[in-house]
Design brief:
Elements: H1 2-21, H2 23-31, E1 34-35, H3 38-41, E2 44-51, E3 56-63, H4 65-68, E4 74-83, E5 91-94, E6 112-117, E7 128-137, E8 147-156
Parallel strand pairs: 1-4, 6-8
Antiparallel strand pairs: 2-3, 4-5, 4-7, 5-6, 7-8
Length: about 160
């Protein structure tokens, strides 16, 4: 009788633990979205890297441990939408509006995120948007920005 009671209690504990920490929890953790802010994205330092074949210096990123911990995760960030190519080929979310963005010399490369939307957005330059996607840290591809959001979606922010 005591053994049966103990066995039942053990099964209940195991079931309770499974319900709390089973595969459903793992799926939820992987599906959760991490809200990042621009201060977190500033966890990077840059050094000049000379490209002899192009005779130009680039800023090479050295990402900090904090921002590295978010790489490959689904993140969300709010900022100013920038269509810097004009034709939708290069879309960004920026800490600053177009008039004071990275290209205008008013900020650093850590203040912009390249966005690869799943569907072409209809946002206009300088609208405040919240964008969600998989964070990629770009260490060396000079044709892209240091921060890239892949598989991204976005909404207008009603601030």
């Amino acid at each position: 009788m005591i053994r049966t009671t103990l066995l039942c209690l053990a099964l209940l504990l195991i079931q309770g633990t499974w319900a709390q920490n089973g595969p459903e929890t793992d799926v939820l953790q992987r599906a959760s979205i991490i809200q990042l802010d621009w201060d977190t994205l500033s966890d990077v330092e840059f050094e000049f890297d000379y490209k002899e074949e192009e005779d130009v210096y680039y800023l090479k990123p050295n990402f900090g441990k904090k921002i590295q911990s978010f790489a490959g995760n689904k993140i969300r960030i709010t900022g100013f939408f920038l269509n810097i190519s004009g034709d939708g080929d290069v879309l960004l979310v920026s800490r600053n509006p177009m008039a004071s963005c990275f290209y205008c010399g008013a900020a650093g490369p850590e203040s912009v995120v390249e966005v690869n939307f799943m569907e072409q957005p209809s946002f206009k330059t300088d609208q405040i948007v919240t964008v969600t996607g998989i964070l990629e840290l770009n260490y060396s591809d000079d044709d892209h920005f240091n921060y890239i959001l892949n598989e991204a979606t976005g909404i207008l922010d009603d601030r």
